[in-house]
């Protein structure tokens, strides 16, 4: 392969000499502005703190690169790793690294950076990964080997997909020189865009890295402006102050459809919105009774909420694991049946309903949360909605600091096992508690090498979660995004189940 690349290089050099203007035009040009639906947090600049959900990738995929990552042509595409092998006994995984890759500060990427990035990783599933990995061995400057304690069929899923940030590589020498705080202040990665500036709560500015190994990005500069309110994002699109606006719902999406100069582009499907009943482990809470949880589920008209929020693009769900996910179990959502909901509440000892306290959520999903609260009220479950800023909301949820109800969701990548580990297993990042039988089944599937048997175990867990009504899934969210007239290629919806722009280097503005 290297010989073929060398032979192709000579004509390319000759063409560059003959047509210097063409080469110049291939350089990044122009500026594209995003209207972001959430506040950008510096924790998203560091793959080591990846939370196992989709949101950080709106920034991470621009700044950083991974050994393996989803691309339009392949959900596990070789990137910083050109290839990898698995030993016959399932204990060793060896990655051959791409040569000639440099970080934004000019440092060459080597196996040292890969080992360092794994060892400092502290995000979603970090404990699970490090419990399973016995050793990380540097075989050579561009070859690295992971040795497991025992065969683990999900090693690549947890390590080499966006289920975690463990395979997203940062420069060892730079991080050690500037420290953890310094890295968040000025991150350096190996992705298509490099950090230029960040004004908290206002904007992030990125500039094309023209030495990106895949190809130079088309657009010179990206400006990500924070605009949590939908009407603000719509106004920015109409005035030409933004070129792409994320998450445009309901009437705002309808307005974009009616505006000839704008386009509505759907993306995603990975994230399932849901209601988390955070006190269900507490015997004193009404939510401890599965009949109450089932009543709440029957109280919700999922189809009506999905139609209002996403113009019908988001299908109602009976599980927080989409059926398109590997090992996902198709689960029919509970039917909208207020009469059955009231009957279940009477059987549980709440004939007049009960006060459920606050439901916490973010402004981006306020309309859906308030719709759920109205459906609850119709059967006697009384709740009040309170918004939190998204970064604080995610931190409080992960740190188990919230009570009562949460308008939540599951949006992690990987397969059914990665989502089960986060949401159903005792100690999971977003788990509301745990069950010994579910924990045991999860451990069994992690050791099971037979694919059919693994699927049976994982789907048994999903059936138990449904029978016990551990969550109240609403719909699989598809974003409706607004795209302005200057954009030729938005890179939205090109990767299945992916919400945000990707690949960033393919984003393109129209010519003058």
Quick summary of this structure?
The chain is 34% helix and 23% strand. By secondary structure, the chain is of the alpha+beta class.
Spans of at least 5 consecutive residues with low confidence:
1-25
Total domain units: 3
CATH class of the largest domain: Alpha Beta
What is the distance, rounded to the nearest whole angstrom, between the alpha carbons of the first and last residues?
A: 39 Å
The average pLDDT is: 93
Tally the beta strands.
Answer: 18
Q: Please state the structural category.
A: alpha+beta
- What is the topology, as strand order, of the major beta sheet? 8-9-10-1-11-16-12-15-13-14
Percentage of residues in DSSP E strands: 15-25%
Largest sheet: 10 strands, mixed
Look up the CATH topology of the largest domain.
Dipeptide-binding Protein, domain 3
Measured as a percent range, the helix fraction is 25-40%
Q: What's the name of the CATH homologous superfamily of the largest domain?
A: Dipeptide-binding Protein, Domain 3
Q: Radius of gyration in whole Å, from Cα? A: 24 Å
**Which architecture name of the largest domain does CATH use?**
Roll
Coarse shape = globular
What report would you give on this structure?
The chain is of the alpha+beta class and 512 residues long. It folds into three domains: 28-43 and 191-262 and 484-512, 3-Layer(aba) Sandwich (D-Maltodextrin-Binding Protein, domain 2); 65-176, Dipeptide-binding Protein, Domain 1 (Dipeptide-binding Protein, domain 1, Alpha-Beta Complex); 271-477, Dipeptide-binding Protein, Domain 3 (Dipeptide-binding Protein, domain 3, Roll), CATH 3.10.105.10. The protein has 17 helices and 18 strands. A hairpin with a 2-residue loop joins strand 2 and strand 3 (74-78). 49% of the residues are buried.
